[in-house]
Design a protein that fits this description.
The structure is a single chain. By secondary structure, the protein is an all-alpha fold. The protein is built from 6 helices and no strands. The protein has a domain of 77 residues.
């Protein structure tokens, strides 16, 4: 998750420019980044498309409002909520209807297959020999090559 690491590092760098109270010293900032990454990425599912703008917004909010160095928890609190993903509502079926549907499916699977009648296949016999067909194909493609080359 390089994108996630980049977002956190960028946000911490912006906060460090503000000179907040209790800000970690420059020597400790790399360790601070490591701790923030560990705390924020502890089994959470982060999605770049959805969460990258949320992380940026959180650091922007912290930069506007914090007077002292914030904790990762403060960053999480400053993050906008994820937009709700709309989906189709689940169709709730009563147990009776579900059982009836299962019985009907079993009947269909176990019953006779009488509706399917394959269409009759008719085969026309071509009186030409294989050599005649191959010769005709050869002439056809030779004529097309000549026409494409501007000959004839």
């Amino acid at each position: 998750m390089d994108w996630f690491r980049t977002e956190i590092i960028t946000g911490i760098q912006k906060l460090a420019c503000l000179g907040l109270e209790r800000q970690p010293s420059a020597e400790v900032l790399p360790a601070t980044v490591s701790v923030w990454l560990e705390v924020l990425d502890n089994g959470s599912h982060w999605d770049q498309v959805v969460d990258s703008p949320r992380i940026r917004a959180a650091f922007s909010t912290l930069a506007r409002t914090a007077t002292a160095w914030p904790s990762p928890q403060r960053m999480l609190e400053a993050m906008p909520k994820r937009e709700e993903v709309l989906g189709l509502p689940a169709k709730i079926v009563s147990p009776e209807i579900a059982a009836a549907n299962i019985r009907r499916i079993k009947e269909l699977l176990d019953g006779p297959v009488h509706d399917f009648v394959p269409a009759p296949v008719t085969v026309e016999h071509d009186p030409r020999t294989l050599a005649e067909v191959e010769a005709e194909l050869h002439r056809h493609y030779a004529d097309r090559k000549s026409a494409a080359a501007g000959e004839g």
